[in-house]
Amino acid sequence: THTDRESVCVSQNRLHFTVVSFFVFFSSSGIQPITVQPCRSCLETLNDLCPSLPLTESSKVFVLASGLRPVKDVLFLAPAFSRWHLQNRTCVLVIIGPVVDQAYACAVRAALVTCPGVVLLPPLETSRFHGFLQSAFALVNSSKSEGMSGAILEALMLRVPVLARHIAGNCDLVQHEKNGLLFQTEEDFVEQAQRLISDDSLRETLRENGFSTVRKRHDPDEERRAYTTLIAPS
């Protein structure tokens, strides 16, 4: 079962061990790796949901996966991305995620009316989202603050290039030009995204190094053993 910021309690020999504030996936075999449900490509999905978007086989879909709340700052890149889209129609930004703050979500919807090339989609079931993300061009994170972004880890595991805002939490996961690209301003984002499009060698390096980062530092089997050791009686 998926335990999201809940307490996991183990009672044995009258001793109690409590683990709090972790995101842990437990099953009979332990912490589980990402699974991808076969599904239509992100281009096919977007053609159905957003028929007004000028999508072709050469389109580059950037995915910003986030719950809609102020700290995620999903509008940070919207105006600059929209201006870029008007110059390069192959590039689109898809914001996808659940509504967490209703007032903020309303503000996002209102703002995107004047941002061609930037669209908002509701969340997908997890394995379907992984399939959607896997066929995207890149994952984007524009949060004002992060702990350890699950979306970034998922993208790295799926070998999807990551462009992340230069903040403390993101910098713990992403090393600029090694396993991802970091940006500080809207203009900086567009510059880094253009590099990713024009430099196939850079893109491949980021994909492989990103996957290697997850396998070395966030391996599901190692995390399972670590959590088991943490909650086991001494």
Structure, described:
This protein has 234 residues and is an alpha/beta fold. The chain contains 9 helices and 10 strands. The protein has helices at 42-49, 78-87, 102-112, 126-134, 150-157, 168-173, 186-198, 200-217, 220-231; strands at 2-4, 8-12, 15-19, 23-25, 60-65, 91-96, 118-121, 138-141, 162-165, 181-183. Strand 2 (8-12) and strand 3 form a beta hairpin. Helix 5 (150-157) packs across helix 8 (200-217). It is globular, with a radius of gyration of 19 Å. The two termini are 26 Å apart.
- How helical, in percent, are the residues? 40-55%
Contiguous helical run count: 9
H/E series, N to C?
EEEEHEHEHEHEHEHEHHH
How many β-strand stretches? Answer: 10
- Main beta-sheet strand count, sense and barrel state: 6 strands, parallel
Map the helices and strands.
Layout: E1 2-4, E2 8-12, E3 15-19, E4 23-25, H1 42-49, E5 60-65, H2 78-87, E6 91-96, H3 102-112, E7 118-121, H4 126-134, E8 138-141, H5 150-157, E9 162-165, H6 168-173, E10 181-183, H7 186-198, H8 200-217, H9 220-231
Parallel strand pairs: 5-6, 5-8, 6-7, 8-9, 9-10
Antiparallel strand pairs: 1-4, 2-3
